User: Fold this.
Amino acid sequence: MRTVTFMIFFSIVLLIYSAVNYFVYSRGLLVFSCNPTLKRYYTIIFWTVVSSFIVGMFWERTASSIVSEWIYRVGAFWLAFMFYFLMVLLVIDLVRVADYFFHFLPAFSTGAKLNLGYAVIGLVTLIVGYGYFNAKNTRIREIPLSIHKKVTGKSELKILMASDIHLGALIGEQQEMKLVRIINDQKPDLVLLCGDLVDGDIGPVLRKNLGKHIQEIRTPLGVYAIPGNHEYIGGIQNTLPYLRSINIKVLRDEVVTLGDGIQLVGRDDRDSRRMGETTGPHELKELTKNLDHSKPIIVMNHQPFHLEEAVEVGADLHLSGHTHNGQMWPFNYITEAMFEVSWGLKQKGNTTCYVSSGFGSWGPPVRIGNTPEVVVFDIKFDSGNPKY
Assistant:
């Protein structure tokens, strides 16, 4: 059943991918067909790049290597180029339709068409180039927070949260070291990794020995993680041993009580059942029914659906990622429609909810309209008595 579902999903995605690329190709052909040499090179280069994403993705999953990584990298960048070519060409087509009725454009010579084609390529290259450098510009967001609960240790706590790191073929050692430097500079008491630490298949991670720097992180209260949907895409049974080998405590529908009395609830990803796990995820009410509500409760939940559940169980802090805040504009409008919070902070009753835009990226290493981030919560505890 899982194989049939995957084949149907993959067929639909491949059909859409092929249709969009054919549209982009056909519009380019209108420009470059005036020169037989340009047309030949355009056709060869275009379809070679288009096929690189599919070829690279399957090659990475079956026999990861430096060659497959670079093929996949070309294909991943092409996803961004393809999308913004599509957007620019649709705008041009709208102008052409308007001109059909109102006749406001001059006649285009062959040279003018070529110049327009080069201008479109230049514009899209600038957009994607900006998005690539923006994706490297990690922001550290500091959020002061008060929780009216008792703790047995110190009354102030610094928690560093990161999500959607996506270690793999595209996010490698350089980005891993960057994250570790940020953590070491911030000196948090506790590090929480809210899903999608790996991008999917574990092969590129093992081949490049990623995680060797993460395992060097030392904090007073430890490093905890939860699975995201990408851990299940790559196979959770293959990914878990890796995560545990780098000194990360992975919580799958589990509760741990830290030394100062903070109760940390780590939810399994909601895609676990769809990916063949028959036991999870469990209801949040079930996981928290035996907790001490006089002490702080922090919930880690990768996908920010049903935030009201955290309010109902009396959680003080609910942390999520997954959305990337759309990653590439205007996809943020889709995530804003899908989720109550696509990115940022929201107070619901006595529960503070935060959805991170993430540290890494999926697919193209490009971000437009948002920036990657690491979030630092400076929490003060007091002995107030909130109502539930």
Summary: Residues 140-381 form a domain with the Purple Acid Phosphatase; chain A, domain 2 fold (CATH 3.60.21.10).
